[in-house]
Amino acid sequence: MSSDTLKQAPAPSSLRLVMTLAIAGLVSGIAIIGIYESTLPTITANKARELREAVFKVLPGVSRMQALVYRDGRIQAVTEPEKDEPVVYGGYDEAGDFVGYAMPGAGPGFQDTIALLYGYMPRERQVVGMEILESRETPGLGDKIYKDAEFVAEFSALSVEPEIVTVKKGTGAQPNEVDAITGATISAKAVVRIINETHVAWAEQLPAPGTEPPLAGESTDDGATP
Amino acid sequence: MKERRDPDLLLFHAPLLRQGMTTPKAMRDVIIALMPATGASLWFFGLSAVLVIGSSIAGAVLAEWLFADRASRGESLRDATGILTGLLLGLTLPPGLPMWMAFLGGFVGIALGKVIWGGLGHNLFNPALLGRAFLLATFPIAMTTWVPAGPEGGFFSAYAGNLALPFMQVQVDGVSSATPLGLFKFEQEATPLTGLMFGRIGGSLGETSGLLLLLGGIYLWLRRDLDWRIPVSILGTVIVFSAILGFFDAERFPTPMFSLFSGGLMLGAIYMATDPVTSPVTPRGAWFFGIGTGLLVMLIRVFGGLPEGVMYAILLMNAATPLIDRYTQPRVFGHGVEKKS
Amino acid sequence: MKKNESYEEFVKGIWRDNPVFAQVLGMCPMLAVTNSAINAIAMGMASMFVLVGSSFLVSIFRNVIPKQVRISCFIIIIATFVTIADYTLLALVPKVHKELGAFIPLIVANCLILGRQEAFASRYPTRLAVMDALGMAGGFLLALFSLGAVREILGDGALFGVRIFSENFEPWIVMILPPGGFLTLGVILLFFNWFKYKKDEFLADVAEAERSGN
Fold first, then answer.
1. CB distance C166–B168 less than 8 Å?
2. Coil, strand, or helix at residue C206?
3. Looking at the 3D structure of chain B, how many domains does it have?
4. What is the pLDDT of residues C64-110, one digit of tens each?
């Protein structure tokens, strides 16, 4: 008898079903908005700090930076680059004088896209530092592109013209030659190729040395921290 | 016949034809056939060959003993499959490999390549190659560091790498040399054919001397321990494939003879692809298996990122073996022609 | 008696009905993010937060939610908790969040969590539901950690980033790559089942001895 009544229990009205889901969705939406709003400042600050740290690392002697984009036929400073807009970062010393560019680049590595940032001094036409931002290269082999201090040091004074070439380990003598990593030739070559490609892509757009846009205001000093 | 009967009790319908063929005997034949190539590895690489091959056999036999249940413990040792797996694995290893890695390879080869599937006759993959694949994935640098033939101090000296402590790296940065396939792929440099045939070149312990491996293969074929279709179709496919490639661009692609005698092709085609457990049982299936392996070897060598592809080619075809067997099953007499309603 | 009951619900998830070792659930995060102990623990904690939170809510509202829309409601609740966990991790520990990547949003699809709502939380009182969720999530965390620890020790020679071997340790690179997850999980499952088999055998022997003794 009791099992019968259970089976025969009247189906709840459609209104009740819709209302239940609507209320659940509403509460869930409010909760998500709340958590989004309360974590957003920290998340943006984290990202900005990471970027600043990377820029300062690849450009020695730099203590201020601003984002630079190529608009209306010239390089200009912006506070917030548009989404998917190519951007480079200008690095400035304590006195606000221009030092060099930090150029982000990305391209296919051995397993997945490698994203990196390198410091470029336009006057010397030299790469002065390189930092891998993202990579999924094989642990123990390909990940030497950022774990092998010797390899990273290859990028501390590297001439980009003529283009950088990878050579067998221990034979690099010219200023534009990079010693490859034993066992990770493909990853090492990928890094060099990304830098070459990025350099070529920007070469035309960067202004002549000495005419870089000046540091715009003090607001960029502390990045995107609200 | 003095040989112990195996199995002791035969229940079978007439006519009966007794053959002396048993698993231990077949395994012993293969070991005998490998002796010339093993001898050559001793000659070229000295004491190192003994250390590396010995460790991998020890690892294989230990796994075999450890995971056998009490009742069959002696049996699985006597049929010598553990020793054969260890020996085959040892022959595919670089001479300068630390002994502990060779030991681990043998152990993993038997444990994951054979025992876990249910023992002899149930495994899908060749245990020796599985052990090697594990080592290559685990220690990619040590497994691709090749030393020139002949240690500096003569026969009784070993490469420094062999003696690394368990779990520790190779300390010494010894002289390294590339394999002929590596030279060809990365430096566009061909190795003369005589070196490839007789074996005084860089490479795995047992793969360097093509002629001696071929000799062992002929012995096995004469003893009927070997399905000749598999090595013939693998080697044939490789020759035809590289001849076709050479027709397009003789500079860029290896010659047929170079493809045939370089790397682990001889060792793999004759001793590993023919493993009766992991290759198709039907004659037609054996042809499919061999041609597939040959094609994969050439595809990996020429177009892949690795200089050598014999191991992965055979393992991939091992995986396809049940499927090949299924589709090449001969029709049972009186069945399968038409369905009776 | 009541205390024993909730204790029982807690313990079963840790060991006997362990979601990974006994039920083989939640394999996706299990294999994907256990390449280091810290990642494994972060994933385990995030899953625990989601599972306990959703079990609590589902159990409270179990008589209010109509049967016809229960799955949708469970998913809304779970998804909300996952989003909260996602943003919190991104704000507090961006490094760990980067490593775990897409696998945090994928907690929604972890069948362990939806399974507990359907099988337990929607049928039992809140106290038991929370104990069950804690036990299951604890078992999941335990499994993730044991896998992550083995893989980090062998693959990197370290635990929680602290070296435990000398500098010369040769890392087993396969262990931090995806195949290492399958290998390690297989071996751990092997030992778990072997242990269970031995225990059953032992219990059967004891029962046999008792019967013959009488």
1. yes
2. helix
3. 1
4. 888 888 899 999 999 999 999 999 988 988 888 888 877 888 888 88
